[in-house]
Amino acid sequence: MKLKESSLDFYAFINIFRDDIENSFIKKIYQVNSKEFIFQIYRSDVKKRDFFISLTKGISFYSADRPDEASQLAMIFRKQLSEKRITGIEQINFDRVIKITLHTGQEIILELFGGGNLILTENGKIVFAMDQHVYRTRTIKIGEAYVPPSLINPIENFDVFKKIVNESTASLVKTLATRVNLGGEIAEEVLYRLNMDKNLMPHQMDDKILNQVYEEINVILKESLENRAYYYKDEEILSPIILKSLKRNPDDTFENFNDGIVSYLNNYPVEEKNKSSVEKRIESQKKSIEEFKKLMEIYTEFGNKLKMNIPSIEKLIKIVNGKVKNGDLNGFDYGDLKILGINPAKKIFTIDYNNINIDLNYTLSAGNNISNVFNTAKDYKNKIEGAERAIEETKKLIIKEREKVNQKKRPRYWFETYRWFFSSNGNMVLSGKDAKTNEKLVKKHMEDNDIYVHADLYGAPSTVIKNDGIEISEETINEACQFAICMSRAWPAGISSGTAYWVYPNQVSKTPESGEFISKGSWVIRGKRNYVFNLPLELKISLIKYKEYDIPMISPSSTRVESEKWVKIRPGNEKRNNAVEKISKILDVPRDEI
């Protein structure tokens, strides 16, 4: 676990703490940031606990810092999930996917790999997904049946495990890491404990060997349930088992697996947390260069060895051809060379040279094989040069990042509490973002000479046109009406046009009729409403000069703006993050401004 839990970590956590989670009630839900949530759960015998969900790190009982106000997404989750009882929690097919079942039959699905995803289902159908996506083998979209990324449990029984390994074309260690979902560290641990060559190929193993591997995996699974955590500082690994493959004692041992996770989250190196994506990219590129250099040297050394022993290599090729004719594809020793096996489908035989698998083609001559080995060494040399060029380009990106950080940050103005724009005639138009700002906008900022605007839809935001010495024209009213309908639920519904109305401030009241109740952020409108029809749902994002700063403004598409750069948007299927990325590049402003 390097701030990202593995399938084994999830297996351990769920099996150790299942009894603490099941039959608990979900109370409040907090959104810590875009990828992290706290589900406050309660049961009379264990009291309140913070169930921390990080879509990029994992799950634990961890009290992360909570925001002062609940986000819109947190409020949606509270409405859907609060007071629901958890009847089950399970890991789906030994994958990095967790399913939490509620007494209502609803399910919370946590896909904790890649960028992560949080999905809600009812009767097996998706009703919410943070990231809607169409994959090659499944579709994550509202209304679709939920299908997990892995349809079988690779460790369910020996027959399933055997089938997965035998169908793999990768080495044993890679197969265990990816196809059996163990991850690299645990896959290597399994084979280390068995003193088994991790580069073995599936076709080189019989049922006896496979059964040994399967049994050792089950030993490790059992060890992971001992409710301990072992921390290895240099490798930055927290594990529910002792990693014998590291050949040393752990730097820290915790008598409770969750205590280990909490300590790790609290004490993870700050410099690692604060590294930018480009700095991490340089580190990755440097590691790649080291690996490429090692491989280039090994292939060059092996090529020279073959070059000095051409007659012997020709004889080896003949021996391999003879074995292929006889159907003998097993490995054998040839002098000081260890042949791991023969693959007739690819017409190759594999040699273990300094713990690197090198393939030779038994249909080619010794000279051609030697050329191929040297060409591979040359390829790695080219990769090194390419990676070095990439590092230089990445360093330029770091300089740009630092320049952006050092740029003078602009102040945030009072009106940015609301949605806002300046009309073509210069009037400020303000619109609420939620019930709280709807209430505040009308009570604090609407004056007698202003105009109140509202889309002809329930739950639309209150919108106010300010008359700060600039008369409110019909053009400005039309723009404000278009803004109001664009900021309503008509936009996510994908409607192409809508209707709004405007009234004077003295027609807006908080006093309900007898027997009625007015909720926070809502208002009673009395008297004639002036309707504006056929308003297009289209907005324009442009850069305007306000005081000494260039700031982005979102306004109706019809608004006249003095700006060299602008982008028009309409309701569609583009993901929000993708749209933000494109717009920020076009306008050349930071993403958070958009």
Describe it for me?
The protein is of the alpha+beta class. It has four domains: 7-123, Roll (ibrinogen binding protein from staphylococcus aureus fold); 158-267, no CATH class; 278-381, no CATH class; 414-538, no CATH class. 36% of the residues lie in helices and 25% in strands. A six-stranded antiparallel sheet has the order 19-20-22-21-23-26, with helices on both faces. It comes from Acidiplasma aeolicum. GO terms for molecular function: ribosomal large subunit binding; tRNA binding. Residues 418-527 form the NFACT RNA-binding domain. InterPro entries: NFACT_RNA-bd (IPR008532), RQC_Subunit_NEMF (IPR051608). Residues 370-404 form a coiled coil.
Report strand order across the widest sheet: 19-20-22-21-23-26
Low-confidence segments, given as residue ranges, are: 270-274
What count of helical segments does DSSP give?
A: 14
Shape estimate = elongated
GO molecular function: ribosomal large subunit binding; tRNA binding
Coiled coil: 370-404
GO biological process, one term: rescue of stalled ribosome
Organism: Acidiplasma aeolicum
Compose a concise summary of this entry.
With 594 residues, the protein is an alpha+beta fold. It has 14 helices and 29 strands. The protein has four domains: 117 residues, ibrinogen binding protein from staphylococcus aureus domain (ibrinogen binding protein from staphylococcus aureus fold, Roll); 110 residues, no CATH class; 104 residues, no CATH class; 125 residues, no CATH class.
